[in-house]
Structures are given as structure tokens and as C-alpha cells.
Fold:
Amino acid sequence: MLRLAGATLCAAAIIGAAPAPNDPLPAVSIDPAIAALVGAVSAERLKSADDTLVAFGTRNDFSETSSTSTQGVFAARDWIAARFRSIAAATGGRMSVALDTYVQAKTPRTPRAVAESSVIATLQGSEPGSIYVMSSHFDDCHGHCTVGSGVAPGADDNGSGVAAVLEAARVMATTQFRGTIVFACFDGEELGLWGSNHFARAEAARHAHIAAVLNNDIIGNSVGGDGISEPNVIRAFSEGLPVGSSLDRVNLVGSENDSPSRELSRFVAEVVPAYVPDFTVRQIFRADRFLRGGDQESFQAAGYSAAIRFVEAHENFAHQHQDVRVENGMQYGDLPQYIDAAYLARATQANVAALSALALGPAAPVGVQLVTAHLGYDSTLRWQPAADVASYELVWRATDAAQWQYARNVGNVSQSTVPVSKDDFIVGVRSVDANGLRSPAVYPVAVRE
Ligand SMILES: [Zn+2]
Structure:
């Protein structure tokens, strides 16, 4: 390393690029309890659950009149509910299981009205207030999404996500979390995000505080249709602007990359590699893939912007929404042999790590403001003090950086200033509890008083 004389170094600091204090982002504090939950995830159980879901033959939304014993979407629903109930039996009444059942009216895409029924397991937290959702959908499609007959295995889309939610519920159910956790298996995703919309709108109507949503949809295959494989990566899609954003305001303050969805994405990308060895979250700053969507959008539309979607790193489109067949020597169909159980286990561990850190750790600060009353050379944030928070940490990054780069613990205060320019950096604040667990960062509202 080149070693400069003191005077030269000083001059370089003054005339160089905008300096930031030497406050590197600290390593994630590993909570042994969370590490144990992550370690309890079983690849064998995940594969077994996925195989069971496939064995219902089809989970098409229009297979609801099939036998309720062995085939069709309601048979699958009943099995999922029974699995949740057996998990809930060990929680001393803290976990409840409910069906969210209703009739979905005919839409321009569908031939008739159809009964829909999601399965919702709720693990009550020790504090009323924040709710953290891990979601999936259990309905599926072959090549014709409005045809209830025929074989639609749905091993990856989305048996993988349902298996992950069931396994996360199993390993997490006996732990007492601060926040309430909802393990959701939605119906009716394929034809219009019906189940998640029905649930999210009802939650909004009762003013529930859903603090984060981790949606899982297509997380079990590790080899793309283009032959590319990254078995140590999962993608997380996050939305840019929350509903109701003022484009003029966003443009003025430069908040286009700091929606609650993006802060949740950053949190997950930071936490997961600390608990899941050799596994990383690739943040995709986009609501979802082109031509497709997912249940996270229902929450965002209902005002819960802190929602992201997990999806495998490389998809194989020959194995999604396809009739099972061999054509020109190529196997089509969403078949169980294309599930990589070890990959699905790591994806599930990523959920368990992030969800546990969210629900066990401190609630994020509220009422966060950036004081912009005067021109200046630093950044001042203030927020409302909260119970059960040991201290607060200001985090900041260059405006063109994807992830938080710097952090400074400022103690248990409700206002603090860091010596970086509010013009040149994005500054947020997060809560830290007595065990060193951190909340997601909160981006401030700029105020002039
Ligand atoms: Zn799906």
C-alpha cells in the first residue's frame, strides 16, 4: 500500500472526492437462536411436502369441484391446513389456522365465478402491533390456466414456495417472537392475485400494521432454461415507488430508490448471508419480472410497500405453466424431478433467517425526519423514541450505491447528526436491540422545520 506523508494525506482529504467518516457498516450480529432455527430446516421435509402437493394431480383454480379426498385444489388446501394445524398443536395456542374463503366473480379472463380458499396460519407475537408475512400460493397451472382438468404438477410454481412456508412454520412455531408472523398459502394467484388481494385488502381495512412481506414464488429450481446455474443465489424483487407517491416530490428529494420495499430488500440482502453459508440475495430493483407478477403486489397495492418477492436465480420456462409432454426430445412440465431440494432448503433458510431477524429484532423507528431547514455540511435525523430499543444507528450511502455503506451507533436518542452532507448521501436510521439485532433502515421524510 502506498503510504503518504501526513500533510499530503490531509490535502488529499480536502481536495478529493466527498469524504465520508470511516464508519464501515458493522457485521451482522449473529443471534444463536436464529442460527438454530436456520439450521433446523430440512431438505428432505421440503422435498416430501413438494411431492405431496404434486400428488394432488392439479391445483388449478377451476379444479375445485374435484374430489376433496385426493385430487384438486381443495384437496391440496385441506392438506396444507392439516399440516399447519399439526404444527400449531405444539404452540400452546399461539398459532391459529384459518381459511380465507370467498367466491371470486367471473373476470374477463375466466369462464365463471369460482370458490377460492387461502390458508392462513398466524403465530401470535409477544407485542401487539407489527405483523410479518411469509407468503406463497398453492394454486397452479398447466398450459391452460382456466381449465380445471388435466395434470398440473406445479412442483416449482409454486409447490416450492408452499413447502418453504410450511417448513418455516414448523421450525419457527415453538419460538416466542416479538412480532406476529403470518404464514400464508394463497389460492387464486395464477389468474389475478385473487387470494392475496382478498387478504391484503381485509388487513388494510382493519388497519393492520404489516411491517414486511416475504413472498415466495418459484424458488426450487437451480438450473435455468439457458443452462446457467447459480445454486448459491436467490433473487429478491422490490418495487420502486409506493402507491400514492408524488413524482414531483420523489424527483425533488431523490427518494426513487428508497421505498419501504427497497429497505426491506437491503435488510434481507444484509442478513441472509450472515446466517446461510455461501448463499447471497441478488437485489433486483424492479417490482417483478417482465410479463409476470406475484402476490407481493397485492400487499403493495393495499398500501404495504415493504413487500418483496423471492424467486430462483435462473428460471426454466419449459417447466412453468406447461402441459406435461415431450416435444422434439424435450421434456416440458413443472415436474418434481426438476426441484433441487438442497437449493430449496437454502431458499427456505434465507426466509427463516430474515423473518426471524425481523420478528425477533426491534421494530423499525417511526416518524423519521431529515431536517433540511438550513444549508449545511452534515445530516440531521430525528424520530420518535420507542420501547424495547437499546440504541439507534444512522446508516448512509452514496446516492449511486445500492446498499448501505456506513453506519454509526448514536445511542438511545431521538435525534442525531452525522458529518456527511445530506446533499451527497442518503441517510437512514434503524433500531438496535439489547442483543444487537437491527431493524430495517427507515428512509426519512425531508422537513424544513
Ligand atoms: Zn407462481
Summary: The CA atoms of residues 51 and 336 lie 7 Å apart.
